[in-house]
## 1
Amino acid sequence: LPQRTHSYVNLSNTELTSAQTEVLSLGCKFSYKPKFDSLKKQTELEILYGSLLKMENNEIITIKPEIKPLLRAEATKNRDFKHSIILTKELRTVCKQLKDHP
């Protein structure tokens, strides 16, 4: 049987663990998404709303009154429907390690 080849090339001097190899072998289209952070999303939407208000003050756009409650509601929603069932808790930890490695 042909040997299994990796879908990555290690250009570093770092010796990879079998778990790191497993994560990297998921391919270049794989992306690890951390846990949904509603506070972060709420903050981003507040910044967006502030930018919209500035544009309205400069008469670039007109804001409808119902936008603020819509943005508040949006802040509680997780729109990431691509939850991975491939990643175990160990592999999630490995993803974080690979991300933080210099």
## 2
Amino acid sequence: MVKFITSACLFLEAAHAASVYSRSVHMVYALSDRLGIPSITDQQYLDAFDKGAVTALVPFFLNVANPDSFATMIGEVQKRNITIVPGIGKAPDALGDMDAPEYLAMAEAVKKYTDYVRIENMQGFYDMHGKTGMQNFMDHCKELGYKHIMMNPWPKAENGSLVVFDCPQCDAVFDSVVAKRKPDGSLKRDPDNWHVSVKDIDQVRAAVPNIPVLINYESPGPQKILTEMEQAKLGSSLDAFKTTVGDITGRYKSYGLHWAPPLTQSYDSIGLKTWDWIANELKTITPPSK
């Protein structure tokens, strides 16, 4: 499905990515050249990263055209050997296809800070525009020297098969937990909620064995639901997280999945005072090297 040069290359890239993503956080520091959560200071962020021994921030930047304006914070993050995985791609009807000049320029602007990039809303882009624009964006990233491209998510064709790309650098995917909702967006009572579904993961792994998979909570919908739950009853969002972590460390342990808890506008784990629990859980799932 995604062409790799050799099986040895695939194994080494997968192992490297697994190490990078061992304690990932779904975190948006800057969104379209403004701070994601202005009420949180840089030092609060850095203290939180230290407490969780965070290894990757995904996406950190979301559609940021001028990352240089955040160079001081980038430097502090890099001092901690934390990988930045900027996300690029708005709603599919916002700027056109993924090879729009604005998206190509974003990839160029942030390259000096990272070898990683994440393509956003890939299913939406495929449904509206097909795969050509995304392939052109991937090719542009390869020309710029990006070594790692994350797919969010890996899109499917009308027949349910994975869309085929020529992208040896595509070496990680994002996948969301189950959160079944009513037509009005509220959570529907269902025993599968907050659990991991491996149906799509099995399909991806059949195409690219060992590809790292980050498990998160879709934003804004389910993350806003988690915020409302926590505000209504302290600890209720942690119960949801425990369900997810239980799957990752229990029945799906052999999959080697990476939990990516949220620190976003939709679920501000610092403001909600749930970060300490999240940080300890990240270190429990994958203890830092001594």
## 3
Amino acid sequence: MNQLEGSGCEAMGRMLVQNQTLEVLTLSQNNMFDNGCQALFFGLESNTTLKSLDISVLKAGAVNTPSLLTLSLRHNYRLTRNSYAQLAEASKANHNILRIAADLQFEGWDEVWTKVEMILIRNTVYAMERYRVPLLMVARGRILLRDITHSTSANSTGIYSLPIELRRMILIALDKHNVLTRTQHISALNIACNPANHFSTKQELLAAVLANDYAFVHEMIKTVHS
């Protein structure tokens, strides 16, 4: 057990603000005090690369780090029921965190931990949807957005009689949980409309739709299946 106190946590917090490469940080069994935690979490709020955090004391700010996928609270003997209740409440706004490890139990544990587990299940669904929706939109879009040039009654009725924008809206509605951005929706639809767009693998298609988010979504899927 180390004793990472105020000045050390402040330095760590400043490092997290500036560092854009660190992905894993382990501070397990550090007996940090409240002011040190606040300094550390201040840095976390500005960090966009950290994916795994192992800490001794929890504050709500930790789970608000947008890139955080896993959080370990093992061997943390200072956490109480109120701390875990705070964790459940703070996690509601984080749609990315997929794993929270804890090994303490107390009276009322089941009630609090059930709330945490429901959030992790929701986020797992969202992670899978971010992988599934682009593929589904492009696959169905190749059919629904195709150019109908014949004027026969068979081709002028049903889905193809609808304005193209309405058909695009139907495809966007496939994203039931709103896991993609508007830009990603447009990218998927544009790829579907262009028959010249061919991809060798699903990964290439996902990278084209998700753009800068692809690496993070790929990491989420790896975490889901780990």
